[in-house]
Amino acid sequence: MSTLVLLVATGLGLAGLYFLLAAGLSLIFGLMDVLNLAHGAFFALGGYMAWTTMELLGFIQSVALRFVVALLVAAAAGYLIGVVIERLLIARNYGDHLVQILITLGLGFAGVALLGGLYSYDPRALDQPEWFTQTTTLLGARIPNSRILIFAIAAAILAGLLIFLNRTRHGLVIRAGVENREMVSALGIDVGKSFTLVFGIGGMLAAIGGVLGAVYFNGITPSLGTTQLIFAFIVVVIGGLGSVVGTAIAAVLVALTQQLLNFYAVTGAGDIAVVVLLALVLLARPQGLLGRQAR
Amino acid sequence: MNPTPVAAEESSTDSATNPPTAEKEGPGQTAVADRSAASRRMGLGVLVVCAGVLAALPLIDVSIPVVLPGPISSPGSMQILGIGLVFAGLAVSYDLLFGFTGLLSLGHALYFALGVYGTNLLMDVLELPYAVAALIAVVGVATIAAALGALALRARGVAFAMVTLAYAEVFSILVLADPLRISGGEEGLALASAQVPDFLNGVMNSHRRYWLALVFLVVTYAIARAATSSLAGRVWEAVRENEDRVELLGLKPFGFKLLAFTLGCTLAGAGGSVYLLLVRGANPGVAGANFTLALLVMVVLGGAGRLWGAALGGLVYGLLDLRLGALGNSGVLDGLPDWVERVLSEPLFVLGTLFVLLMVFAPGGIAGLADRLIPDRTRGRERP
């Protein structure tokens, strides 16, 4: 029983990471029809920004304070770089989705290689506050606090994202744009601004994911994000393109399937089961769990 | 959201560079058709000359510094050029799916890797001679591609891309986790050289392996050329331009798409069995998602929807990928700060950046650039 609880708790931590990566992807795709293949590089970028910040702030005694600052720096960097890339490269090619996808593909390659050249391909471990490595006993299982924290942060971001989408004007435009982009532009609203905003938010979420991923995997490597990106894609498709809640549900579903089967069956069985799950969802419900019916 | 399939979205990228979708003769169009036939014959002549030059390379003893590690005929250079030729053939096979039919498959590496691993395992486990093993592997790849393709093609556009990506990922995970203890995990497999005929084995025969790679490229190119100028090839391009309209005209796109998918994947499998000999082993890297993305870069680098463009893109990518690392040791970058040198020595950084710039400034790839520089009406490739 306690093993099961531990596995579920760890799985929920992983689900948090998947959600952070997949939510941005899903929104970007839902609004702009662009599959952002550079998303994994944003994830890695977040991890390295945090690592560098932690190193630079070495004079601060409290590791927890340094970690919080590093998380904020990484989030801001992810947002800014997302906005710059969207304005500089993606915005030039509105209306040509394939070119946009290919640009993100090239950026993904270049970004990972850039990080590899700067930081080498060996894993870099983040300093973690002592509390992270301690455990909390829940239902007889000793769960590492970092797993709980990752899940809590992801849940808070989900709540924040939903409030942003449902309660603010920007969110309203984004939701309307996902529903029918042409109509929104026809009503005289500058959808381009929402594109930039969504790209920035996506970059920010991925960068936060990278910082937490560095904690979860005990270190960050340039290609870590790209590896996770494939599962994030699966989460996006299962959840339904453009649906934040669908993405969250799918993230939990995918991460738990993966964790439980990798432990109780053979290592690798969980990864394959996730792909089978994807195939089943696509056959039974091609638009994903909460996706809109294709028109 | 606009559910238009990716196929339709691609049309705008390629519209400037693609051959016309129909060359049917109509009243007043015979002159165009004549010119087009003449240009096809001329194109064929250029291709034969290119193949002849490539075939003669092993006889040349000239060194090209930085680009190649030694004289062209040296084993090291022969290997690099041979890999470049295999990549060129692979890019052509991928262009059939992506450039001509508009199928954004993100799992093409799977069929290549099946060719690599399948051939080696058949030689290793069943002790079959190389030629037989390669043949069985290619037939196997064709069967698997047809089965997987039939399922994946139920989805369109980005969903299709995701399903193909997922297939490739399963295989990649299986190869790395190696539950049956046959694929060698992260180490990969060494070539079962006992089953390879003597005239293709050993350092001294590197030029013959190069020729084998050239044969693969030429055969692939010939098949792709014949296929794309056949009736089915016309339908492929129509599917890429507007799948719904093809359906409306009474044709079932599914069968045509499956044909393109299976043909492209089978050719990739054949490339795998040649690649196995060139690099003397099977490396799990060829099964990874990054390799598929590299193929996409090759095709787009050269110019999607143009066979010679894809081939050139594959060759250029292969040489850059294998030799950019040597740039760092060549002394060209000395004097730059250490970190700049390290970043510039990353082949994927240079390639990725180059690719982004190409996409922003010349979305038609090398073939598109050539079209812009040499406006040639006789090619009949102009469109209003």
What does this entry show, briefly?
By secondary structure, chain A is mainly alpha-helical. Helix content of chain A is 76%, strand content 3%. The mean pLDDT of chain A is 86.
Which helices and strands appear, and what pairs or packs with what?
The complex is a heterodimer of chains A (295) and B (384).
Chain A: H1 2-32, H2 39-56, H3 63-90, H4 97-119, H5 130-133, E1 135-138, E2 141-144, H6 145-167, H7 169-179, H8 181-186, H9 191-216, H10 224-239, H11 244-264, H12 269-284
Antiparallel strand pairs in A: 1-2
Helix pairs in contact in A: 1-6, 1-7, 1-9, 1-10, 1-11, 2-3, 2-4, 2-9, 2-10, 3-9, 6-7, 6-9, 7-9, 10-11, 10-12, 11-12
Chain B: H1 6-14, H2 30-56, H3 75-100, H4 108-125, H5 130-152, H6 157-177, E1 189-190, H7 206-229, H8 231-241, H9 243-248, H10 253-279, E2 281-282, H11 289-302, H12 307-329, H13 338-344, H14 347-361, H15 365-373
Antiparallel strand pairs in B: 1-2
Helix pairs in contact in B: 3-7, 3-10, 3-11, 3-12, 4-5, 4-6, 4-10, 5-10, 7-10, 8-10, 11-12, 11-15, 12-14
What labels describe this entry?
heterodimer, A: 295 residues, mainly alpha, two-stranded antiparallel ribbon, 3% strand, B: 384 residues, 2 strands, 1% strand, globular, disordered N terminus, disordered C terminus
